[in-house]
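=== Structure Prediction Worksheet ===
Name of assembly: unnamed complex
Input type: mixed (protein and possibly other molecules)
Chain count: two
Listed entries:
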Amino acid sequence: MSSTGTNTAAALPRAADERRMRVARTVLILIGTAGLLFGLYVLFDTVRVNRLPGVALWIGAAIVLHDAVVAPLVFFGGLLLRRAGRRVAGTIVLVVQGAIVVGSIMTLIVVPAFVAQSLTPNNPSILPLDYGRNLSLFWLGVALVATAASALLYARSRRANQRPSSRQS
Amino acid sequence: MYEAQRALASPVRNPRMAVVIGRLLGVAFILCFGTGLYSHFLQEPLAWMRFPTRPAQLYQFTQGTHIVAGIACFPLLLAKLYIVFPDLFQSPPVKSFLHLLERASIALFVGASLVQITIGLLNTYQWYPWPFPFREVHYALGWVLVGLLVLHIGIKLPTITRYWTREADTERGDTEHEATDAAGEVTTDVDAEQTVRRDAAKGEAVRLWGSRRPSGVTGRVIAWIDDTPTAQKPAPTPAVSRRGFLTTVGIACAAVVGLTAGQTFAPLDALNVFGPRKKGVGQQGVPVNRTAEEAKVTASATAAGWVLTLAAGEAERSFSRTELEAMPQTEVELPIACVEGWSQLAVWRGVRLSHLADLVDADPGASFCLISLEERGSFKKTEMGPEYVRDPLTLVALELNGETLDLQHGYPARMIAPGRPGVLQTKWLSRIEAITA
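=== Predicted Assembly ===
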């Protein structure tokens, strides 16, 4: 391709650029470290020492929960979907995947509201909506949109399949 | 480890995508941090700090932004983590002490980010299932995260600058028209893949191609290309995968924001089906943050002998509610805007605070201390700077939306001032003191 030359030129930046980059990185890393340390100072300054292990526990648990539970679930979910979706066009798999992701993220945000609702019955203006029903309707809407989009894509790929092959090569 | 990375390969897991999502997430973090800092200093001002009182909706806007950006962080952060997940299995796991520090900083960044947005969200639900105080930890983590963000940008700067703009080579597939012109699509993708292989030789962008082989038109064309002896296993339309990924993230952001932001942004009220508050829901059409029962004021606030005491130096005067009602009344339209992100515009009627301050000859430059009937609570006693005390919109409110103030809204009298967090609009007022410097 024609742009190979440009690419090589970009890979060999001039010494001045390299120096600028080094200075910028050093400044950012120093400022960032200062912000981090200030945050830790505020944490130790304002939170009682016996509460700090709880903060560390939550941060550690968040990492474990994501890396060992959520990410593998997403990975294997994606794998299953790819297998199941082998016979349809790739774009349809993407639509279904997208629908599941959008629905799951909304569920992640709304389910705690649903749980919290049962815990704070004394103030009727907090969490006043029917979150369970609304979430079900949301999933229904997502499913409908995804089905419609998939049907459209399927029809389109079938039409394309029926075209003479000369137009495809 | 390398095998694990290979297994996780996907067209969306590439440095360019990490930069695209990363900078959106960075913007959201900065918005959250800036608006959070503003809210923090409104509540705990340093001695020299003065704040703008106009526009009166300023705090509604900043705190609404805080919550909206925070909610958008859920899809953005998850997308970012999805993109960079294979980096978890880099091999060797640790190359040097600096590399160890870098990985530790990223682990802390990920963990603290997840905790920050989670406790922030649950705070809007007033649910606190963690063993530490919310306000202090949320504030400290804000600094920790903004520090880690700048640190992360510093560490990744070469990658960020390299992939900041769409590269003609690897990203050309994105500009092509989708699927309808399948052959053209695949040709660019194969081109892109060859570029990627060159990059891979340089140790970059190894993961640009995925392992999935699509069927349908594109799959057939790929199979056809497969049969040609020169081509290696071609990529499955990575451009389409990337577009699909970005579309998904975009829709998820639009959904979580669009279906909750109506709790503060009136035009979206009809779409507010998941917000923890709903406009117009609450006594007198205004949501309530802390109830009279929680504040334990039901008896003291309804006691017949209630008076509001104003003090400035030696001067001290007390007024019953009837006496306050006999004073010149002012009607203002101001929002009550909560730190939790909801807001509600309402009509308030009462006595200007500046009028009351003049009755006790308070120094025009004096800050005031507002004391509630609440027995305990972080906001039982708060301070108000002179810019608010002397503002013509600042009232000791006696009426709300044309009715006597409901007990849940601070009967017999409460503060209402422009551009202040709801927690500082002291309910169940008991005493107002000028602070002498």
